[in-house]
Write a structure and sequence with these properties.
Blueprint lengths: L4 H26 L27 H14 L15 E9 L3 H8 L9 E8 L6 E8 L6 E4 L1 H5 L3 E2 L7 H15 L4 H8 L6 E5 L11 E8 L8 E9 L9 E7 L2 E3 L2 H9 L41 E4 L2 E4 L2 E8 L3 E9 L12 E14 L4 H4 L2 E3 H4 L19 E9 L5 E25 L1 E20 L2 E9 L5 E9 L3 E3 L8 E5 L2 E4 L1 E12 L6 E14 L2 E16 L6 E3 L7 E9 L5 E9 L21 E7 L37 E11 L15 E9 L13 E5 L15 H4 L17
Antiparallel strand pairs: 1-2, 1-17, 2-3, 3-4, 3-5, 6-7, 7-8, 8-9, 9-10, 11-12, 12-13, 13-14, 14-15, 15-16, 15-25, 17-18, 18-19, 19-20, 19-34, 20-21, 21-33, 22-24, 23-24, 25-32, 26-27, 26-29, 28-31, 29-30, 30-33, 31-32
């Protein structure tokens, strides 16, 4: 071997190391940290107009609680520990002022409306138990309260209609453990290896078959991660209508396809060998197949989105500004994320065709109707607003639930407690490059050019976990003036124990688990004010007409033509769920664009809903909003919502029946509201294990400008790209994309990952 070879190799290795070091150092100099603005919620003075819609602050909630405790003349128990026979505060929310007062303040220079709270109280400790709603004000130091229950609902709200408190669920759990299970020790120990901790239960709703009932089927599951997929075949019907929990009783028991009078009868049949036992394999604590723990190790990092020059939107108090958009947001305890005073292209005085204002866009209700051959599954009709879509808004995980660099906002609520609670990172706001052009054209005919605009939109998101389901609620703002409301469903499917003819009601997804068929329906309230408060509803569509070709009369041509119709009444504007609806339906203003057309905003619905419950059903009126894919009515202060939190537990005598809103009133040149229903049919399948994915489970609506502008407003976006064959496309002044290697080569500042959700 050449004696110089080791030295040559050593020098070569040193040279390679030197070159690599230089490259790394050079690369580091080319990639400084991005000059990004800190993602904090900016604060402005108390004069901000958007604060007229703001949620209650923790300080205001505390003031309202103190006022109620000192001025109602009754003892109020902390709802988290309340018995059915106690008085307690169930929830507080902001009482949004009347629309006329708000618009007078925003646009007319009028006085700011007094700030008030809406308090829902349960009065169980009195001769006539009932639910009462009070408006309390003015905030921040209340001095008055007024009972608005009769004004809102036409009468008192009977106590049996009250939504269940968490304390009532805990009391049912205690009853199940100490009374129900105590009656069948041999059966539970030998069949389920019951040890006092290894079972969980879920209740059904509504609670019975007629007004006044409060009887719930409690489905029993293995108490493991993802317990929703581990039914054991046992269900118990408990009558908990009495305000005295010692008088609660078992009405019926179901096990593996058979019904029993009570647990004692089931125990006797088991001991005597007169029962068909289907023993379920004991699942490990992590749930095994129901565990969401990844089955693969971490590998290459997934793509991340960042803002090389900082966020292009701002959040001040409850107001968001983004390019031509501005709006206020809030979080209702019952209905969740909502938006107010949505404006496009600045103030309405900017110029007459540039302003679009939607006074309010809010989620009204989310409903599920289930099928099964088990009693709990077949009787379930969940109305999630009753449980509290906003109350169950969950903390968002940075980088998964929303982009890592999004702005995260805390919200506050007071529900089933005497003290307000903070929901950490429960709402996120971010600009998202959707990875496709909003519009583009490549020309290779006559002239050679390219023009396009990246589809970058602002997203406001919250996610509510209501039991087994997770609903991802989005409002999306596009640069062409369109707004999208969207919900995506994920989480665990509900299941029943597979037995008998169970496959008529779903698919088998594990050994003893039936994924049960269900429908999901989502109702939105959209109060559009297009070019002013007064609007009309217009439908455009198409029809084919036969005509003779003018240049060749012996030939016929079938050509599509435009059809137009003004929908004059509420009855004409109520479109049944599966009926044909005009494909272009829009709110029309009393003004015209440059080309002589009525300026408007079109409603476009994305939905693949299952069938609606038959109207002959005794409970259908409680969910009669779901009859319609779209219904447009006159806006009335006395018709603020399409449903009520009290409908869930007494759908047979609904507190609010949406069908009554539609009474053939004229809707021409009036203040109008669109009630939009989107939904989907879910037949669970094996790919829903362990979790349902959002892909394909997204529904909602679009609000799109329709002759509202003289041309597409996105042409004024700073993000546009245009160059011709005669230009230098590598020059930044010609093509902003050519600047990306320099402008976007920085390293983003990602804050440390934190998660406080388990402390909420």
């Amino acid at each position: 071997m050449n004696p110089k070879l080791p030295y040559i190799l050593l020098v070569g290795a040193g040279l390679i190391i030197f070159i690599l070091s230089c490259m790394l150092l050079s690369r580091g100099r080319r990639s400084p940290g991005c000059e990004s603005q800190p993602h904090v919620v900016e604060k402005t003075g108390s004069t901000s107009q958007s604060l007229v819609f703001a949620d209650l602050s923790p300080e205001e909630m505390a003031q309202v609680v103190g006022y109620l405790r000192g001025n109602l003349g009754v003892q109020l128990v902390d709802a988290s520990r309340a018995k059915p026979s106690d008085n307690c505060i169930a929830s507080l929310d902001v009482q949004v002022p009347a629309k006329a007062a708000v618009l007078g303040f925003l646009d007319g220079g009028g006085a700011r409306p007094p700030r008030e709270a809406l308090a829902v109280l349960y009065f169980g400790n009195q001769p006539d138990p009932n639910v009462t709603e009070y408006v309390v004000g003015p905030l921040p130091r209340p001095v008055y309260h007024r009972d608005v229950t009769v004004q809102k609902y036409g009468g008192k709200v009977p106590y049996h209609r009250r939504p269940m408190l968490g304390s009532e669920y805990e009391q049912l759990g205690t009853f199940l453990k100490t009374v129900v299970f105590a009656a069948a020790p041999s059966f539970l120990t030998e069949v389920f290896e019951y040890d006092g901790t290894n079972v969980a239960f879920r209740t059904t709703a509504p609670h019975g078959f007629r007004s006044g009932d409060r009887k719930s089927w409690l489905g029993i599951f293995q108490n493991v991660s993802g317990f929703f997929l581990h039914p054991v075949g046992l269900e118990v019907l408990v009558d908990h209508s009495s305000l005295d929990t010692s008088r609660w009783a078992v009405s019926r028991v179901f096990y593996n396809g058979q019904y029993y009078r009570d647990m004692a009868q089931l125990e006797s049949a088991y001991v005597q060998g007169r029962i068909s036992v289907e023993k379920v394999r004991k699942a490990p604590r992590d749930g095994d197949f129901s565990s969401m723990k990844p089955r693969a190790p971490s590998a290459a990092l997934f793509p991340l989105q960042y803002e090389p020059q900082g966020p292009r939107y701002s959040v001040r108090n409850n107001q968001v500004l983004f390019q031509a958009w501005s709006f206020a947001f809030g979080m209702s305890v019952n209905t969740g994320l909502r938006l107010f005073d949505v404006r496009h292209r600045g103030e309405r005085v900017a110029y007459e065709i540039s302003v679009q204002e939607a006074y309010e866009i809010s989620i009204q209700e989310a409903m599920s109707v289930y099928g099964s051959n088990c009693p709990g599954g077949m009787s379930t009709r969940y109305m999630d607003g009753s449980f509290g879509i906003g109350r169950y808004t969950s903390p968002l995980v940075r980088g998964v639930d929303c982009p890592y660099s999004a702005t995260y906002v805390d919200t506050h609520s007071l529900s089933e407690n005497l003290s307000p609670s903070r929901r950490k990172d429960s709402l996120c706001i971010f600009e998202q490059n959707l990875g496709s052009p909003l519009r583009r054209h490549y020309s290779n005919l006559q002239s050679l050019y390219y023009g396009g605009l990246v589809n970058s939109a602002l997203v406001v998101r919250s996610i509510a976990t209501v039991g087994n389901y997770d609903y991802v609620w989005d409002f999306i703002f596009y640069q062409n003036g369109a707004i999208e409301g969207k919900v995506q469903a994920t989480g665990y499917v509900s299941s029943s124990f597979l037995h008998g003819d169970g496959l008529r009601y779903g698919n088998r997804v594990w050994e003893h688990t039936l994924g049960t068929i269900r429908t999901h329906s989502i109702n939105y309230k959209v109060d559009l004010d297009v070019g002013g408060v007064k609007n009309s509803l217009v439908a455009h569509d198409m029809a084919f007409e036969m005509t003779r070709a003018p240049w060749s009369p012996e030939q016929q041509i079938e050509r599509p033509r435009l059809t137009k119709k003004v929908l004059d009444t509420e009855d004409q504007a109520a479109f049944r769920l599966q009926s044909k609806m005009p494909r272009y339906i829009y709110f029309a203003a009393n003004s015209k664009n440059k080309w002589g057309h009525q300026r408007g905003y079109r409603i476009q619905i994305t939905s693949f809903a299952g069938d609606h419950m038959p109207e002959a059903s005794s409970m259908e009126r409680a969910i009669s909003w779901a009859r319609y894919q779209l219904a447009v009515t006159r806006r009335k202060e006395e018709e603020p919502t399409s449903t009520s939190i009290y409908n869930q537990n007494d759908p047979w005598s609904p507190t609010v029946a949406f069908a009554d809103f539609i009474n053939n009133e004229t809707i021409t040149n009036e203040d109008l509201v669109a009630w939009i229903t989107a939904g989907f049919l879910h037949i669970p399948h094996s790919e829903d294990i362990p979790n349902t994915v959002t892909v394909g489970n997204s529904v909602g609506f679009l609000l799109r400008p329709y002759n509202y502008y003289d041309l597409d407003p996105s042409i004024y976006s700073h993000d546009g790209v245009f160059f011709t064959s005669e230009q230098d496309v590598t020059a930044c002044e010609v093509n902003p994309l050519a600047c990306l290697p320099k402008a976007a080569s920085c390293l983003p500042h990602f804050p440390p990952f934190t998660f406080d959700g388990f402390q909420n």
